[in-house]
Amino acid sequence: MVNLIEYALGGNPNEYDLHINPVHGYVSLPNGSPAIFFEFYYSVKAESHAYIGVDYSTDFLTWTMAVDGQDGVSITITSIDQETKHLRAVIPWVATNVFARMHVEID
User: Fold this and answer.
1) What is the CA radius of gyration of the chain?
2) Hey, which of 10, 68, 98, 101 would disulfide with 43, CB 3.0 to 4.6 Å?
3) What is the CATH number for 28?
4) Contact 42, 87 (CB under 8 A)
């Protein structure tokens, strides 16, 4: 795992932290349409000096930043405690394939 991603996820670079990896799957929207979800826990400390979000693509070549309320995307961020937040992105399945990835960028 890249150190910046591990830092954002609150991982310890000296330990094997498989449990911190993002989780993804399929859901149905309230209208019955298919969607994917992509979620992870992240460090509040990392958030103070890095952008942490989700990108999605239909071809692995062109990636779009997932923005809450745009193109049917829903992003929910929940504070777990003073050190951790949980992000869940739900992205409508509008093409044959939809892929999601974590996006971390230092400010």
Assistant:
1) 14
2) 10
3) 2.60.40.10
4) yes
Q: What is the pTM of this model?
A: 0.90
The number of beta carbons lying within 10 Å of the beta carbon of residue 26 is 10
> Tokens 């591990």 — which residue?
6
Domain span at residue 69? 3-106
Q: How confident is the prediction along the chain (107 residues), in pLDDT tens digits per residue?
A: 578 888 899 888 788 877 889 999 999 999 999 999 999 999 999 998 899 999 999 999 999 999 999 999 999 999 999 999 999 999 999 878 899 999 999 87
Using the Cα atoms of residue 59, residue 24, residue 6 and residue 47 in order, give the sign of their dihedral: positive
